[in-house]
Amino acid sequence: MHGITMSRGWALAVISLSLPASVIHADPLPAATWAETISLHIPNLTSNYTGQDPAAPEVLSKTTTSAGNSLTGDVTFGAAGPPFATTHAKGSVPNGGDFLNPLTYSVLSQTVIAFDARIVETHLPPVAVSTVPILIGSLGSLHATGNAIASGSMIVHENGIEIFNKTASVTYSVQQASLGASDARSLPPGTILHGDVIVTAQMSAAMSASGEATASLGPSFEVTSAFIPGTEYQYADFFKIEYSPGYWALGDPTPVGPISWGRIKTLYRAP
């Protein structure tokens, strides 16, 4: 263990052997819910796609072309673990309308995720612990070029009260921004946090234009390495962050490569 002396490590091992793997028995968290939307529109083209399919496998991707103009939208999820999504939109409209005859070409890719996270006691600490110091954070980035827009937000509530909000967007030209942020909190063991993640990439043009946008975002919660007062042990030795099932749904370290996210979502979709 990092930063733990030999005597502390042996003492912790003794405590671990003498206690059950989980001290607090709580009901399972509800499965994460998420929906992907890709909307493509080329004027006068009947095969445009617009839809939302929470059971579709990733990468969810759609492309439509007409008269030299093309639009593409993609939605992907990260590896198993905390919910992390990336949306991508790209449009090339060299033969668009003009001032006298504007035609709207548009592509939008969006993912909306609702998840819960809980502070879980894994072993009984040597002294009573009323609050656990944690970092509530977000990881992600935005990038947009040309006539495109990328945006992302993650909002976290505890008992209906907003305690974290990271929101940003970039538009036009060549722009990028980080969605990384963190906030330190001390919360009681067993506290459930509710998070909402929205990432959007879009491009639109009424005349000849092009653009590309990518938005990625997900949570990064952790129990800090602070020491429990009056002891030689860290909070992280006795507590961890548990996320809603659905991303670790197949278990760890079971590989998820051969399994589509669509099949996982079908299996764990809320009734």
Strand content: over 45%
Helix/strand-derived class? mainly beta
Helix residue percentage = under 10%
Task: Kindly provide the radius of gyration, computed on alpha-carbon positions and rounded to a whole number of angstroms.
Answer: 23 Å
The count of helical stretches stands at: 2
Shape: elongated
Supply the number of structural domains. 1
Task: Give a short account of the largest sheet.
Answer: 7 strands, antiparallel
H-E order: HEEEEEEEEEEEEEEH
Number of E strands: 14
Q: What is the averaged pLDDT score? A: 75
Gap from first CA to last CA: 41 Å
Task: Describe the protein's topology.
Layout: H1 6-18, E1 33-41, E2 50-52, E3 60-66, E4 69-77, E5 85-93, E6 105-121, E7 132-146, E8 148-158, E9 161-171, E10 175-178, E11 181-187, E12 192-205, E13 209-223, E14 239-243, H2 261-268
Antiparallel strand pairs: 1-2, 1-6, 3-4, 4-5, 5-13, 6-12, 6-14, 7-10, 7-11, 7-13, 8-9, 8-12
What's this, in brief?
By secondary structure, the protein is mainly beta.
Describe the structure.
- It is a single chain.
- With about 270 residues, the chain is mainly beta.
- The strands form two sheets. Strands 1, 2, 6, 8, 9, 12 and 14 form a seven-stranded antiparallel beta sheet that branches.
- The protein has one domain (about 5-270).
- The protein contains two helices and 14 strands; from the N terminus they run αββββββββββββββα.
Question: What are the salient characteristics of this protein?
Answer:
50% strand, seven-stranded antiparallel beta sheet, disordered C terminus, 14 strands
